[in-house]
Design a protein that fits this description.
The chain has two domains: 7-247, UDP-N-acetylmuramoyl-L-alanine:D-glutamate ligase; 255-375, Mur ligase, C-terminal domain (Protein-Tyrosine Phosphatase, Chain A, Alpha-Beta Complex), CATH 3.90.190.20. Helix 1 (7-15) packs parallel to helix 4, helix 3 (76-93) crosses helix 4 and helix 6 runs parallel beside helix 7 (179-191). Strand 12, helix 12 and strand 13 form a beta-alpha-beta unit. The chain is built from 14 helices and 14 strands. It has helices at 7-15, 34-47, 76-93, 97-111, 148-151, 155-162, 179-191, 214-228, 238-247, 268-281, 299-309, 329-336, 346-352, 366-375, and strands at 25-29, 52-55, 67-69, 72-73, 116-120, 137-140, 171-174, 195-198, 255-257, 260-263, 287-291, 312-315, 341-342, 359-363. The two termini are 39 Å apart. With 383 residues, the protein is of the alpha/beta class. The strands form two sheets. An eight-stranded mixed β-sheet has the order 4-3-2-5-1-6-7-8, sandwiched between helices.
């Protein structure tokens, strides 16, 4: 377990005059689904006519994807200027990359005059760099085992960390359906003085939705409940919600582009959700998959599920994956057997997987999807 602290982020923000206090926030955490909820809330607030900031992580190709306000990423010159401005405080505090980018997000959104910002938790919750905000609404989507090196193996322990974003006199929306985990999070929230709002386990959004997969109807129900908890002056109408939800799409989240499908599923629950969306899509066969998973993930069950769902699987290595987290393909093949094709050269694998395929699924991590999008003409998120 590593030592976490909010102090580095707070030190940078103090140097900047606390920009995070200049706009209201919707704060969204959880293991899976938090990115979808963020985008649904963001899109709805935009539909309602507000100037809205959206901070998410990680990025797929360009770091500027993390900082969106009114559909526009942070300009390159503004990003460089904010980095230069915070560098002394970063060096003095020993802030991490994520702590630094979180400070940049708040500074950028304040400078661009947003009416409200939607902020995605990076890792955990209680001591995540984003937890310096005092949100109008906090949300925890769902709990699963992920980042166990940092959060531990216990689901109850992970739930406690995620619920640490609860704030006094503010609602905490709980989307988890496991009653034991809901109880853990409710206990943490009440101890913090928050008002607990649970989304009924059976709740699903029933109107047209731009996102694929049955699981997204659950995410949409959570997002809708969060929007309903906003103060009246910021609460969108039902018409805004329905229009925005129908138009929402997310780069890299079951992102269908012609014959290509991109999904950043990077844990077993994420793969389950992706395969539900694939079944709903009913793509023309054969479906080939290009897969690369980071070595610190539980890749064995992920690969078994994928192999049963598609016609052929290529295993590869994404160039941007850090060396210490890149899986060993020889070890993988020895563990899963010969029923997979292996091409360590990513660009070659990207070509090979297309041969004879009606649809190509690219998945396994943000690195895998981002590296593919960067190499396919016209597919990079920022153009």
């Amino acid at each position: 377990m590593i030592e976490w602290s909010l102090r580095p982020t707070q030190a940078i923000l103090e140097r900047l005059g606390h920009p995070e206090r200049q706009f209201p926030v919707v704060h969204v955490g959880g293991t899976n689904g938090k990115g979808s909820v963020c985008h649904l809330v963001y899109r709805t607030l935009r539909q309602a006519g507000f100037r809205v900031g959206l901070y998410t992580s990680p990025h797929l190709v360009d770091v500027r994807e993390r900082f969106i306000a009114d559909e526009r990423p942070i300009p390159e010159d503004a990003f460089s200027a904010w980095v230069d401005a915070i560098l002394p405080a970063v060096e003095e505090s020993g802030a991490s990359f994520f702590e630094a980018t979180t400070a940049v997000a708040f500074a950028d959104f304040a400078a661009r005059g947003v009416d409200i910002a939607v902020i995605e938790v990076g890792l955990g919750g209680r001591l995540d760099a984003t937890n310096v905000v005092e949100p109008l609404v906090s949300v925890v989507t769902q709990i699963a085992r992920d980042h166990t090196d940092y959060l531990g193996e216990s689901l109850a322990g992970i739930a406690r960390e995620k619920a640490g974003i609860a704030k006094p006199d503010r609602p905490l929306i709980i989307g988890e359906t496991n009653p034991d985990l809901v109880g853990v999070m409710a206990e943490v929230a009440r101890a913090a003085g928050a008002r607990v709002v649970t989304v009924a386990p059976e709740a699903r959004y029933g109107q047209p939705l731009g996102l694929y997969g049955p699981f997204q109807r659950r995410n949409a129900a959570i997002a809708k409940r969060a929007l309903e908890e906003l103060p009246s002056g910021l609460r969108p109408s039902d018409e805004c919600v329905s229009q925005a939800f129908a138009a929402t799409s997310i780069p890299g989240r079951f992102d269908v582009r012609g014959k290509w499908i991109f999904d950043v599923a990077h844990n077993s629950n994420g793969v389950d959700a992706m395969l539900e969306a694939l079944a709903e899509l009913q793509p023309r066969r054969p479906v080939h998959a290009l897969v690369a998973i980071l070595r610190d993930k539980d890749w064995r069950p992920m690969l078994r599920k994928l192999r049963h769902a598609v016609d052929r699987v290529w295993l590869t290595e994404p160039p941007t994956a850090p060396d210490e987290r890149r899986w060993n393909l020889s070890e993988v093949v020895a563990a899963v057997g010969p029923d997979f094709l292996v091409q360590s050269d990513f660009e070659r694998a990207l070509q090979d997987v297309q041969s004879g395929a009606a649809r190509v699924l690219v998945t396994g991590s943000f690195h895998t999807v981002g590296d593919a999008l960067a190499r396919l003409p016209g597919f990079a998120p920022l153009g």
